[in-house]
Amino acid sequence: MSKPIIVLLSNALRLADNAALSEAVSSGAPVIPVFIFDEQSPKVRPLGAASKWWLLQSLSNLSSRLKAMGSMLVVRRGVAAKTVQELVEETDAGAVHVMRGYTPSARALEEQLHEIYADTDIRIRRFAGNLLIEPEAVRTKTGNPYTVFSPFWRAASVLIDTVAPQPTPTKLLAPKDWPANDGVESLGLEPQPAYWAEPIAEAWVPGEAAALDRLRSFLDGPVLDYKAARDFPAIDATSALSPYLAFGEIGPRTIWWHTKLQMNANESITKGAAHFLRELGWREFSSHLLFNQPHMQSEPMRQQFRDFPWIEGEGDFLTAWQKGLTGFPIVDAGMRQLWQTGWMHNRVRMIVASFLVKDLLWHWREGETWFWDTLVDADFGNNIASWQWVAGCGADAAPYFRIFNPITQGEKFDPKGDYVRRYVPELADMPNNYIHKPFEAPVGELQMAGVKLGSTYPKPIVNRKIAREKALAALASIKKPD
Hints:
20 helices
């Protein structure tokens, strides 16, 4: 019998479209699927609370699927590189397979493993598949990485091969002896206290099968009107695949393949599907940015913003924003949706982020950290790149003084106030023309709606006209060449 192959599934919690697993299975060797929970390595960013909830469900699901196939998910907790060494020694493994990662910690692990086993018979093999196209493949004519999305996507999209994703293996050959398995329950991922995650559990079903179901449902209907409807938060018009992608429960090539198939079979969805794939391109772009500029996780991409007078720390305005008590209904609805479901509509993410960094001048890292802790789809590259984009200090062709007006944004994308009424029920009886600006409503309208500003619903925490002037003055204070 060939020596076992250890397959690290830590950044790809799926059995289909998993090149590292498929190659191990096809070799005919025993396969040992492994998940290592590492919060100790220097470059690892510990997961937020919402992500831990999702991970718990996902690992339990994956473990059950492997058990049904006569295999096992070996779960360990510790420094990843050291834990791999221990597993290799325990199992006498001949190879370690890993799906390529693009975060600083994933890259560090791959480099460590190659260094540790460089002069040994142990083969360390890295496989692509967590992105549509590798970061080294997309460059400008001068050989530099792109820093603006549109030209990046024009160059990248023509390089992506439409190939069928690798199927789920039918059987994994088990090793003669399994290594010790700490089990999913040993990781301490359960929410404390348990009740805070109950609304999230009502909104989501983690796991690979659920991811495929969501993709099929989206391609069978909502994708048709995706381009027009995706900006309206009261409409269920998005794919909601982001958490499944973040945990690797579905691969981007699976999404690309099935979407292209549907486009070929039904021309009427072409416009919506093409726009959907473009949004998948933003995920690629964010990962490419982080890969090429790892310093962006803590520093602005545009270096002139190092001297921007952001507000940092704890404060009443930050707390009001986090709790959805700013007095601006679309902002409050978004922040409450986030807290209740672990997710927020993309259009609203831009609105609430702009409000924090432009209207309140709070540092983008404060918002990015809050999202990291509360989003079930918290993705390292996406989260950082998106916050820097809104803050004006990242990869963005638009000027800093683009500031989202929460009133006009609400009126345009939630015209009947359905989204606000869902998440800010104290405003449920406000008329449409004041639902996004109750602070401008006549006293009689407020009384009829049962709203008492400053009591049942907060007054605005900031004067937006003054806030805009402060934001522009802050920009003027750092005027230096990029």
